[in-house]
Amino acid sequence: RSLDGDGLVYIIHGWESGLDASPAYDGAYDIPDSDPVPRFAQLYPKFDELIEAYRFEDMWDQQRILNKSKKGALLFDFFKVKDVAVNCVYAAGWWELGLLALQLNDTALATECRRAAQLTAQGILDKMYDAENQVFRTLYRNPTTGAEEASSRITVQSLFPLLLPKELLPRDVADVLVGHIRNTSEFAAPFPIPSVSMASPSFVPNFSEKDDLMWRGPSWAFTTWFVLEGLHTHGYSDTATEVLQGWIKAVRHAGIWEMYNPINGSGMGVEGGCHSAPYGFMPTPQAPSRRRSPHVLHTATPPPPPHPGASSSPYPP
To answer: Three-state DSSP class for 26?
Structure first.
């Protein structure tokens, strides 16, 4: 999926990331910036058309799908997106695999994994970071021209670079991300973390069963979990505690739901959505860990963060 020499990987459908109709994908689905809140009929049929095109036109040949340069004349058959969140999880995954390799004393494999993580992390910083506006943006291929463009929408994916280890994410950039999380006009909602910045014209806090367009504003557990992990990775334990307390408040207020209105805390979608459950049973905030299941409940207080200038990398220099 990494085709452009920048270490960044493509997804070929919004369902691959699990973020369905995220506004970050509007441009890739040929929705213009002038229409920040598209209707169901404008967007959702393209999800099905993509699947049908991949099935009947491309016979699920992934290379053929990825080699397309723009959409065709009949079905909507073109979607090439470099999602910020997907690439951050990808880079962090390589880093973690390298740590596992070190535990097995396989330094050659550890080095290979570290280099893969570094390549993707550098691509994220070089190509996805909008330094002028201090925000990370998802990239996509314009369906009509095939040119690479940056999404204008600011979504929860923009916070995922916090998943990158301290060795790969500059501290000043991490500070900027935390500023977005703490900004009451952006992501510091009463029931965090909204899937779209509250400052975005695409932000819709309610989910409508009629429209069935997900990820356009409500808060979800698993994206918040990733952000919590990133906050603890970089030592922002106070901010992580505030976010987690907001989630516990949502669960106590409305019960267990698939998603929540970030403004009033009402539950939406499927009642009993299990990925929201762990937050309601954590009496003391605890740092999530890649080495422990997020479904295991812990009550210990997180250890103090290391000095900002210190390096805790287990990799040899």
So the answer is: coil
Q: How far is 19 from 88, CA to CA, in rounded Å?
A: 15
Question: The tokens 């997020």 sit on which residue?
Answer: 294
SS3 148: strand
- Phi, psi for 256 (deg, rounded to 5): -90, 120
Query: Is the CB of residue 279 less than 8 Å from the CB of residue 253?
Result: no
Alpha carbon distance 78, 65 (integer Å): 8
- CB within 8 A of 48, min separation 6: which ones? none
C-alpha distance across the termini of the chain, in Å: 30
**116-145, pLDDT tens digit by residue?**
999 999 999 999 999 999 999 999 999 999
Count CB-CB contacts under 10 A for residue 176.
16
**Among 20, 126, 163, 38, which residue's Cα sits nearest to residue 79?**
20
Cα 75 from Cα 163, distance rounded (Å): 37
- Whether the model pTM is above 0.85: yes
Cα 82 from chain centroid (whole Å): 11
Which single residue is written with the structure tokens 């340069």?
A: 69
> What single DSSP character describes residue 219?
E
Phi, psi of 82 (to 5 degrees): -100, 95
Answer left, alpha or beta for residue 269, where phi above 0 means left and psi between -120 and 50 means alpha: left
Smallest CA-to-CA distance from 151 within 291, 315, 309, 30 is with: 30
